[in-house]
Specification:
The protein contains 9 helices and 14 strands. By secondary structure, the chain is of the alpha+beta class. Helix 3 packs antiparallel against helix 4, helix 3 runs antiparallel to helix 6 and helix 4 packs antiparallel against helix 5.
Length: 387
C-alpha cells in the first residue's frame, strides 16, 4: 500500500546535429565563422535544455514543506485574520532567528508583536460573537503574559530559551485563532451527510504497551474521515487491536479487527461502513471528495492543507484499487524528509490525512509489529462529533 515512487527523472535534452560549415580560403573569415557557429550552438543547446527541463521543474512545489505538525495545524484553521496570522508567522520564525543570532531583528519583532496586539485588541475582541468575547479576552491576556519571558530572553540573548518560549506563546495564538471560528465553514456533500462528522477538532489518546500518544484530529479539513475515526474510538473499536502492518522508521498501521472483515460493520445497518477520500487544497474552502490527486493529475504539483510532511501524520488506509473504501484501518506516518519529501511522494493527495500525533512521539519510535493498543479514548472535543 505504501510503496513510494521517488523517481523524478527530468526529460533528456534534445540531441543537437552539428553541421560542418563551408571552408573559405581566408583564415580570418574562417575564424570568425567558427566563433559564430560556436556561439549559435551554445545558445541552441541552452534553449533546448531549458525547454526539456522546464515542464518537469514546473511540476515541483515551489516552497519547502513545513515539517512541524503544530504549525501545519495552526495554518489549517479556517480563519481570516491578517493580524493573528502576522503574529503567528513572526513568532514561528523566532527560533531560527535566535539560532542565527539576529538579536536586533528579534528585538524589533517582539516589540512589533506587542504593539500590534495592543493596538488591535479591541478590534479582535469585537470580531467574535458576544458569547466568545470573554474567552478571546482571556486568551489574549495569556498571550500577552507569555510574551514577557520571551522578551526577556531576547534582551539577554538567551538563545536556548527562545524556542520553548515562542512555542508557548504560539499555543495561545492558536487558542485565539480557534476562538475566531464561529461556525463550521461548509457542509459535506449530501451523499456523505449520513456518516459521522467531526465539526471541529478533538484529542484522542492512544494507550499502548510501549507508552501513550496523543492525536490531534482535524475535522475542519477532513470531517468525514475524522468523524469516522472519533466515532470508532468512542465505541471502543480500537481497544485491544494490534499494529498489523509496520515498517520501522516508515509507518505503523492498525484498525484491522479479528476475522475476515477488514473494517467496521455498522451494527444498525449490518453493512460495511466506508468513507471516501477527502483532501482539501489551500485555495478551496471545501475538500475534494471521491478523487485522488493521481486521478486529477495533481500528484507532485501542490501540497494539500494537511500534507504528509510531519513525523506522526495520521491517515486513513484504503485498498489499493479503491480510494473510497477506507473504513477503520489507519496508519501513522514516520516521516523521513530525505527519502519521502512532502509533495514529491505518492501519499499526498492519495490518502486522507485527518490528524497528527502532537504528544508522545517517543512512543512511536518504540512501537513494532504486533504491539497492542490497550485503549483509545477521546480526551477533548467529543462535543464536535455529529452522528
Amino acid at each position: 500500500m505504501l510503496n513510494l515512487n521517488l523517481n523524478r527523472n527530468l526529460e533528456n535534452p534534445s540531441d543537437l546535429t552539428n553541421h560542418q560549415p563551408d571552408l573559405v580560403a581566408d583564415r580570418s573569415s574562417l575564424w570568425l565563422t567558427g566563433v559564430m557557429i560556436a556561439v549559435t550552438c551554445l545558445l541552441v543547446t541552452c534553449l533546448s535544455m531549458v525547454t526539456a527541463i522546464a515542464p518537469s521543474m514546473a511540476a515541483l512545489p515551489t516552497k519547502s514543506a513545513i515539517k512541524d505538525a503544530r504549525v501545519i495545524l495552526r495554518n489549517a484553521l479556517p480563519i481570516d485574520s491578517e493580524v493573528l496570522r502576522d503574529v503567528q508567522s513572526t513568532l514561528e520564525q523566532m527560533p531560527r532567528q535566535a539560532n542565527l543570532k539576529r538579536w536586533s531583528n528579534l528585538k524589533r519583532d517582539i516589540d512589533k508583536i506587542s504593539q500590534t496586539l495592543t493596538q488591535n485588541q479591541s478590534q479582535l475582541i469585537s470580531e467574535v460573537s458576544s458569547d466568545c468575547q470573554g474567552l478571546v479576552t482571556e486568551h489574549l491576556a495569556s498571550l500577552t503574559t507569555a510574551l514577557v519571558p520571551l522578551e526577556e530572553a531576547i534582551a539577554i540573548k538567551d538563545r536556548n530559551s527562545v524556542k520553548a518560549l515562542s512555542e508557548r506563546a504560539l499555543d495561545y495564538v492558536g487558542l485565539v485563532e480557534s476562538d475566531f471560528i464561529q461556525a463550521f465553514p461548509f457542509e459535506v456533500p449530501a451523499q456523505y451527510a449520513q456518516l459521522p462528522q467531526l465539526k471541529g477538532r478533538a484529542l484522542v489518546e492512544l494507550s499502548t504497551e510501549k507508552g501513550n500518544a496523543t492525536i490531534t484530529v482535524d475535522g475542519y479539513n477532513a470531517p468525514v474521515n475524522a468523524g469516522q475515526f472519533v466515532d470508532l474510538v468512542q465505541k471502543g473499536f480500537y481497544d485491544g487491536l494490534t499494529f498489523t502492518r509496520a515498517d520501522e522508521n516508515y509507518y505503523l498501521q492498525t484498525g484491522d479487527p479479528e476475522g475476515a472483515v477488514d473494517g467496521y460493520i455498522d451494527p444498525k445497518t449490518k453493512k460495511y461502513r466506508t468513507v471516501p477520500i477527502e483532501v482539501r487544497l489551500p485555495d478551496q474552502k471545501v475538500p475534494t471528495y471521491g478523487k485522488t490527486f493521481e486521478e486529477m493529475g495533481l500528484s507532485g504539483t501542490t501540497l494539500p492543507v494537511l500534507p504528509f510532511a510531519a513525523f506522526g501524520t495520521v491517515a486513513m488506509a484504503h485498498p489499493n484499487d479503491d480510494a473510497n473504501a477506507g473504513s477503520s484501518q489507519f496508519f501513522i506516518y514516520l516521516f523521513e524528509s530525505e527519502l519521502t519529501p512532502a509533495g514529491l511522494n505518492l501519499l499526498d493527495g492519495n490518502y486522507t490525512v485527518f490528524g497528527y500525533v502532537t504528544d508522545g512521539k517517543e512512543t512511536l519510535d518504540k512501537l513494532r509489529l504486533g504491539d497492542k493498543i490497550l485503549s483509545a479514548r477521546v480526551i477533548s472535543g467529543a462535543e464536535n462529533l455529529i452522528k
